């Protein structure tokens, strides 16, 4: 197998070292070089030809934003994942970076960087595996499947936790190496989709619910930019994203979407032609009200490791709207949304799933498809037109 080759750009020597160690201890990826600012990073790209760049924002001489502007001018298509602060200002700049073509972001740990770096190990591995593997394969490389990288991330987390609790004196380097694990642990198996027989025929569509995760920021940009300006129904979105970022994310979507986009608030009236993005760290549900259905937010326990969870949204929509809804599941790691999208389908709702070829990570759409939850698989390029078409033909009046 070939390695995903990563260029780490951060003005902190400690951060460069810590992140490089995480990368280099993961089978299937390697740090091909480091840079202390955007200027040096640009100089190293032609020689190193990385598959992915991890990029800090605040750096001397050339910031992350300036790097992305220059990357755009030069037509460099290497994916970039931002290393972001969780401060409010950091959220705004992070969204600016996504506007400039960055693929995604990882939030830096607060407090002592060296002691908290393990808290973002899985995120680093996930984002490198998701975006870097796709680019590396386009170059003809043979790369481990994403499941192999995530299996390693889980083992690293378990080992780190054992060390902190004193159950292990040291890490066994082979304990987290995918090359030392039986392939049955990480090789994805294709399954034939189950059959769901809806309890009722699909009805007029009153609401649209979307669940999306890794790869979502740019995928949603593409879909919402092409949505019909006269889209007649509300759209509720669960995008797995940390607290503190979703308000800025909704604002960034609002700038390119012909509909109004906002971060959902508890008690919001659900209006036609309005897009509501679940806030980070809050589940989003729909609730019946006398005059107008409303949004309810909660901090109930995580579902499928997430809050907000697509399953929580889909479950709520299935109960309230039954066959008068459209459920959409798109790119993302894991299985969130699959079970309750199947319940929506069982109730008679319309359902769409992003196809494997266009998904950055075909985890959530695959899980839903295998459960029989997806009526039709659609490419990212065609998702907006498919949604527009369904609403034009089946929206209630």
UniProtKB/TrEMBL annotation:
UniProt modified residues of type 4-aspartylphosphate: 56
Keyword terms of this UniProt record: Chemotaxis, Cytoplasm, Hydrolase, Phosphoprotein
Post-translational modification: Phosphorylated by CheA. Phosphorylation of the N-terminal regulatory domain activates the methylesterase activity.
InterPro entries: CheB-like (IPR008248), CheB_C (IPR035909), CheY-like_superfamily (IPR011006), Sig_transdc_resp-reg_Me-estase (IPR000673), Sig_transdc_resp-reg_receiver (IPR001789)
Span of the signal peptide: none
Main location: cytoplasm
Annotated Gene Ontology cellular component terms: cytoplasm
UniProt-listed GO biological process terms: chemotaxis
Source superkingdom: Bacteria
Location of the protein in the cell: Cytoplasm
Pfam families attached to this UniProt entry: CheB_methylest, Response_reg
Domain Response regulatory intervals: 5-123
E.C. number(s) listed in UniProt: 3.1.1.61, 3.5.1.44
Domain CheB-type methylesterase, first and last residues per copy: 202-387
Annotated catalysed reactions: [protein]-L-glutamate 5-O-methyl ester + H2O = L-glutamyl-[protein] + methanol + H(+); L-glutaminyl-[protein] + H2O = L-glutamyl-[protein] + NH4(+)
Active site: 213, 240, 336
MF term (GO), any: phosphorelay response regulator activity
Function: Involved in chemotaxis. Part of a chemotaxis signal transduction system that modulates chemotaxis in response to various stimuli. Catalyzes the demethylation of specific methylglutamate residues introduced into the chemoreceptors (methyl-accepting chemotaxis proteins or MCP) by CheR. Also mediates the irreversible deamidation of specific glutamine residues to glutamic acid.
NCBIfam families in alphabetical order: PRK00742.1
Family, similarity comment: Belongs to the CheB family.
UniProt note: domains: Contains a C-terminal catalytic domain, and an N-terminal region which modulates catalytic activity.
Record's protein name: Protein-glutamate methylesterase/protein-glutamine glutaminase
């Amino acid at each position: 197998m070939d390695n995903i080759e990563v260029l780490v750009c951060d003005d902190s020597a400690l951060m460069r070292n810590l992140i490089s160690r995480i990368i280099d201890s993961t089978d299937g990826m390697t740090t091909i070089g480091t840079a202390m600012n955007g200027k040096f990073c640009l100089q190293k790209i032609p020689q190193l030809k990385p598959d992915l760049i991890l990029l800090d924002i605040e750096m001397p001489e050339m910031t992350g934003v300036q790097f992305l502007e220059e990357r755009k001018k030069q037509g460099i298509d290497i994916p970039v994942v931002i290393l972001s602060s969780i401060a409010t200002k950091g959220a705004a700049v992070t969204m600016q970076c996504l506007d400039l073509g960055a693929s995604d972001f990882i939030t830096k740990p607060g407090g002592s960087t060296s002691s908290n770096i393990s808290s973002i190990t899985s995120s680093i591995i996930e984002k490198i595996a998701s975006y870097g593997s796709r680019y590396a394969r386009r170059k003809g490389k043979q790369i481990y499947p994403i499941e192999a990288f995530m299996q390693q991330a889980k083992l690293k987390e378990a080992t780190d936790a054992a060390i902190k609790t004193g159950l292990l004196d040291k890490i066994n380097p082979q304990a987290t190496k995918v090359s030392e694990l039986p392939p049955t642990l990480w090789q994805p198996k294709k399954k034939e989709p189950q059959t769901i027989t809806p309890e009722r025929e699909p009805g007029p569509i009153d609401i649209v619910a979307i669940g999306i995760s890794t790869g979502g920021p740019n995928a949603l940009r593409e879909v919402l930019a092409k949505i019909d300006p006269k889209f007649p129904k509300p759209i509720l979105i669960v995008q797995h994203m940390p607290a503190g970022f979703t308000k800025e994310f909704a604002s960034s979507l609002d700038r390119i979407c012909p509909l109004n986009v906002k971060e959902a608030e508890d008690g919001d009236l659900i209006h036609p032609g309005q897009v509501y993005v679940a806030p980070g760290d809050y589940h989003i549900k729909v609730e019946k009200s006398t005059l107008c259905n409303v949004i309810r937010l909660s901090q109930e326990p995580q579902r499928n490791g997430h809050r907000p969870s697509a399953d929580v949204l889909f479950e709520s929509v299935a109960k309230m709207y039954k066959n008068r809804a459209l459920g959409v599941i798109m790119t993302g790691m894991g299985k969130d949304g699959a079970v309750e999208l199947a319940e929506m389908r069982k109730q008679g709702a319309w359902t769409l799933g992003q196809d494997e070829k266009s998904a950055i990570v075909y985890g959530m759409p695959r899980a839903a498809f295998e459960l029989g939850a997806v009526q039709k698989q659609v490419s990212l390029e065609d998702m907006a037109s498919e949604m527009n078409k369904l609403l034009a033909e089946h929206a209630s009046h």
